[in-house]
Amino acid sequence: MSDSLVIIPTYNEKENIEKIIRKVFSLSHFFEILIIDDGSPDGTAEIVKNLQQEYPALHLEQRTGKLGLGTAYIHGFRWALKHPYQYIFEMDADFSHNPEDLVRLREACVKGADVAIGSRYVRGVNVVNWPMNRVLMSYFASMYVRFITRISIQDATAGFKCYKRIVLETIPLDKIRFVGYAFQIEMKFTAIKYGFKVVEVPIIFTDRTEGVSKMSTRIFREAFIGVIQMKISSWFRNYSRKA
């Protein structure tokens, strides 16, 4: 059994899912994979089931309906904590996150980070194939988050991450309330408030070439308002770690 689990939420990813699974299993470090599929009508889950016969370290959790990215990761975190994984990853299915960087994120945590973020902005802007309006929206969203929350993370909305087990054991997952970009912000903010060491590892982000983006204006709206709500709520929360 591996010490590392990669959680990949899916909804209609039949074009990408087999390729991403095979790529992760080809890496120099052995990662297990957990697919959280939200009832994809395109047959994504069936592709995963077929691959499970070839890869015993490939796991699948199926949910009914499109329930949101944040809830998919929370589901995956809870599943992971029932097993002895020490490093738990978030990654997209569409190759916007380069699977090769999983090894670098894990290495950052092995060397002392509690959370390692695959960062698009820690060294300039490293984004490929995104239209300029998306680049600007994402970049200035991170600036907005830093201004409101006073955290120093350059890529606050990044969704490519490695957590040490203790982080997910400490954060009360039932109190994480957001589902889109705001979920990614809330997890970073909460980890920092609990005193965990969060580092950014530079990556190159490449927009998907197959399948359909799940981004929407509603997700950005949730993040914009949610950051203020999250900051205000933090004034009334106790972030002391249990002994």
From TrEMBL:
Residues 6-170 form the Glycosyltransferase 2-like domain. It holds the Pfam family Glycos_transf_2. The keyword Protein biosynthesis does not apply. Keywords: Glycosyltransferase, Transferase. GO terms for cellular component: membrane. The keyword Transferase applies. GO terms for molecular function: dolichyl-phosphate beta-D-mannosyltransferase activity. CDD domains: DPM1_like (cd06442). InterPro entries: DPM1-like, Glyco_trans_2-like, Nucleotide-diphossugar_trans. GO terms for biological process: glycolipid biosynthetic process. Belongs to the glycosyltransferase 2 family. This is Dolichol-phosphate mannosyltransferase. It comes from Pedobacter nutrimenti. The lineage of its organism: Bacteria, Pseudomonadati, Bacteroidota, Sphingobacteriia, Sphingobacteriales.
